[in-house]
């Protein structure tokens, strides 16, 4: 069973992102504040959950949360500030959407930047240790998957309904045939080589 909080005597928010390793689409983050008595035996790191389970958990998380927020950073912003800074910016934007100001932030991973001087702690594999980070990972993943599903309707040959923009063989093969579009991150290694910027310029 995951733990409720890192610190028990304050308003603590958990943050996580989805889409950092994708070749296309935005990076999305969520921030979730859960009540002290929240428990759910199904909730875990979104990467360990089936899509069916993630979708089942989403309304439970939203109805149980004291507050939650979603932050999105576009493909073009990713290219301007790099994916690490974009992931952190997405988490900042998610925290901005909260209805109350947290007193402590816990973040999945090992990198973060201060947000409004609120104390924070990075937690390696935090999405498999704390309910709030796991909840954020589920909300971020579901939100981004839905975005990619919508983009798939306009660009079906990339199979974003299945790969969600990640660098699968099918996705990369489609890029090699059709070229990238406006949703691809041109600073990323689209084809698995290093010359895509020249090839598609």
Molecular structure report:
The structure is a single chain. The termini are far apart. The chain is globular. Helices cover 38% and strands 15% of the residues. A five-stranded mixed β-sheet has the order 3-2-1-4-5. The chain folds into two domains: 141 residues, Ribonuclease H-like superfamily/Ribonuclease H (Nucleotidyltransferase, domain 5, 2-Layer Sandwich), CATH 3.30.420.10; 47 residues. It is of the alpha/beta class.
CATH fold label of the largest domain:
Nucleotidyltransferase, domain 5
The tally of beta strands, per DSSP, is: 5
CATH class of the largest domain: Alpha Beta
Q: Which whole number gives the mean pLDDT?
A: 95
β-strand percent reads 5-15%
Order of helices and strands: EEHEHHEEHHHH
Taken from the alpha-carbon principal axes, the silhouette is globular
Count of DSSP helices? 7
Largest sheet: 5 strands, mixed
Derived structural class: alpha/beta
> What is the CATH architecture assignment of the largest domain?
2-Layer Sandwich
Poorly predicted runs of 5 or more residues:
none
* Helical proportion, percent range: 25-40%
**How many structural units, i.e. domains?**
2
Short key terms for the protein model shown above:
5-stranded mixed beta sheet, Nucleotidyltransferase, domain 5, alpha/beta, 2 domains
Structure described in brief:
This protein is of the alpha/beta class.
